[in-house]
Each structure stands twice: as C-alpha cells, then as structure tokens.
Amino acid sequence: MPPEPLTPALQQPKDKADLFWSFTWLALQGFGGVIAVVQRELVERKRWLTREQFVEDWAVAQVLPGPNVVNLAMMIGGRHFGLGGAVAALSGMLLAPLIVVLVLVALYGQVADSPLATGALRGMGAVAAGLVTATGIRLMAALERNPMGMATCVLLAAVTFVAIALLRWPLVWVLLGVGAVACLRASQMLSRQALAQSGEQP
Question: pTM for the complete prediction?
Fold first, then answer.
C-alpha cells in the first residue's frame, strides 16, 4: 500500500465568487494583524497554500509595491482564474473594508480627543504587534526546507531587524543589500542541489 500523505491535500477556490467572499471575510478579520489572519485562513482553514508556499508568496508580495495582503490576494486569484480571479480577489479585499473604514472615520472624528479612544488605540497597537510576532514565530518552521538552511535565514532576518529597527537604515537600501545577498545565496544553494541530484541519477 502507498504511504499516506503527511499533510492534507491542497484545495483550490471553487470559482471567482469563492475568491471574492473568502477574501472579503479575510479582510474583515484583519484589523491590525492581517498576516496572522491571512496565514490561518489560507494555510490552515482553506488549505489553498502550504506553509512553505505561503512564506514564498508572502515574500514576493512584500517586495512588490502596494499593500502586502492585496498583492497576495491578486497573486492567488490570478493563479487560479487569471485576470478575472485577480479582480475578484482584489474586490473582496477592498470593498467591504472600505465601507467599514469610512464608517469608523466618521465615528472616530467625534471621539478623537477622548482619552478612552487614545488608550484603546494604543492597546490595539500592542495587540497587533503581538499577533505579527506570534505568526512570524509560527512560520519559522517553514524555513527548515529553505535551500539556504534555517541558520542562514535566521541570520539574514536578524541583520534586517538590526538595520531597520536599530540603525534606522532606509528600507530600500536594506532590501537591495540584504535581499541581494539572500538571492545570491539561495541561487548558489539551489545550483548545488541541482548538481547533486543530477549526479545521483543513473
């Protein structure tokens, strides 16, 4: 008997309407900690992506201009249904949240000077930071399959953190510098793996 798969089989969106409503629901949950919601919905609940695929797609979405989660939604929609799927996913990400934000802006204008509102916003900021940190720790396991290896990935992440958070270097220079080093290293390791695999073949 063939061995059972270690992970459940991947699913895919049923149609463009499924894309629209899935990303609408995702967007309405994503106040402050959207990456946590995105990872849980797309990887754990929908199973549209593996954890490794999510890390790779999220990295591409961060490099592209524009909001990360919007880029990711368009990538997934376009992958399954072309331009129409990208538009459906984009509409789902933006339509309902736009309405909610407009309502909240109108309400916030009436209580902006309230100490209660100021304290609530500061508290939500701390919660959002915790959500992002927790998701990052959870996704670290996916780096074990990265061709560069866990140690190199952690080192690059630490260098990036120091450059941006402590040294306050411009993001574009950190991206070009550290990103270029990471790309070269990954390309080198993938080439070695390809050579090793070709040498093993009869």
Answer: 0.63
Domain boundaries defined on the chain: 11-115, 146-202
The backbone torsions φ and ψ at residue 147, rounded to the nearest 5 degrees and listed phi first, read -60, -25
Q: What is the pLDDT of residue 154?
A: 86
Residue 9 has phi, psi (to 5 degrees) of -65, 145
Please, are residues 16 and 84 in contact by the beta-carbon 8 Å criterion? yes
Which residue shows structure tokens 């670290």?
A: 140
147 within 8 A of 186, measured Cβ to Cβ: yes
Pairwise CA distance, residues 201 & 158, whole Å? 38
pLDDT above 60 (res 74): yes
Spatial neighbors of 84 by CB under 8 A, at least 6 apart, are 16
Mean pLDDT score, 178-186? 88
Q: What span, in angstroms and rounded, lies between the C-alpha atoms of 32 and 134?
A: 13
The average pLDDT across 1-21 equals 73
